[in-house]
Amino acid sequence: MLFKYKAVDQNNSNKEGTIEALNIDIAVSSLQKRGFTILGIQPANKTGFFDRKITIFQKVSNKDVVILSRQISTLFQAQVSALRVFTMLASETPNPLLREKLGQITTELQSGSSISKSLAKHTDVFSSFYINMVKAGEETGKLDETFSFLADYLDRNYELTSKAKNALVYPVFVIFTFIAVMVLMLTMVIPRITSILEESGQEVPIYTKIVIGMSKLLTDYGLFVLIALFIAGFLVFRWSRQPSGKEFFADLKLRIPYIGNLYQKLYLSRLADNMNTMLLSGIPMLRAIEVTAEVVDNEVYRRLLMKSAENIKGGKSVSDSLSEFPQIPKIMIQMMRVGEETGELGNILKTLSNFYRREVTNAVDTLVSLIEPLMMVMLGLGVGFLLASVLIPIYNISGGA
């Protein structure tokens, strides 16, 4: 980035010019090293308000962090210094927000901070798991391997999570389509047919009365219903951010038939993969469990892992501390116990992670194959019920006539 500056040199002569630097702090530092006293400095190309890149709505995706980790690993293997690595990546990274973060990390490294401490100031991009892995890599002197491990782990986690989320996109779309069709029929089609039924004066079945009542509710008070739904949704969203709400929805997610089983396998795979990756990097098991609790992304599993960590501090083994919770399958406990007895806990965790990853993949494939016909049947039954509720009385009127 190019900066314009005004300064005074050691001979009290005024100086003006430009300097290329990653950010304004580095530019000031470079000028001061030349013996200049800074009078003013600003970007050479100032942009207008509407030309500025707004980073408030931008985010750093998991894919960005995976690519970044692989680049860092490659540069460390090439014996490039940490400061040079982050300086290069800060100037080349296409994501503006990540580029800004890397620039700040570079400044921290220049001031003598370690990589892990610099990353810890940007927890919105780098998780506790990521930071602890880097810290372990610094302590063991294997940062190139650590960043390679991180890239592989994040890649696996992203693939698995994306597969599970994508499986739920289609049913959500169909459900919203179903609701939209029902609302359109109740507000546009049913009222016209209702007028025919009311003019006939004929007694209608109870299910037809229900449909007519729903139609009148939406046509007469539709705006109020919409406002009520919006307020209710907002309140539920706010509550879901509270500890009690987080635990309720986390537990609900695990209790939904079939979907809950899918999520359980996803969390178990993530749990085993996290702990295995951290053990490979030399992080103690207790710390690995504590960090995994913060990144497992489910309040139920977070709480049980934190309680397990407390039990381990009290002298219990990992398998015994986890065996108290029904959310952890017995087969997983038994395999971990064998791993502890044989000293192969890391390999056991890797095997468990691979097993549950395959289980998630198979469950998602099965779910996708079942959802399409099931959703179409539900949509057909819903529309059919509405039509039958009003067409059967009309047919009776025609028959009576």
In short:
This protein has 401 residues and is mostly helical. The chain has 15 helices and three strands. It has a three-stranded antiparallel sheet, with helices on one face.
Any idea of the CATH topology of the largest domain? Receptor-associated Protein
Order of helices and strands: EEHEHHHHHHHHHHHHHH
CATH class of the largest domain: Mainly Alpha
Low-confidence stretches: 47-55
Q: What does the oligomeric state look like here?
A: single chain
Q: Strand order, biggest sheet?
A: 2-1-3
Mean pLDDT score: 82
Structural class label: mainly alpha
Straight-line N-to-C gap: 85 Å
Discrete helix count: 15
Query: In total, how many domains does the architecture comprise?
Result: 3
Largest sheet report? 3 strands, antiparallel
CATH-scheme architecture of the largest domain: Up-down Bundle
Overall 3D form: flat
* Structure summary, number of beta strands: 3
CATH superfamily of the largest domain: Type II secretion system (T2SS), domain F
Spatial extent as radius of gyration: 30 Å
Helix content: over 70%
Strand proportion, as a percent range, falls in 5-15%
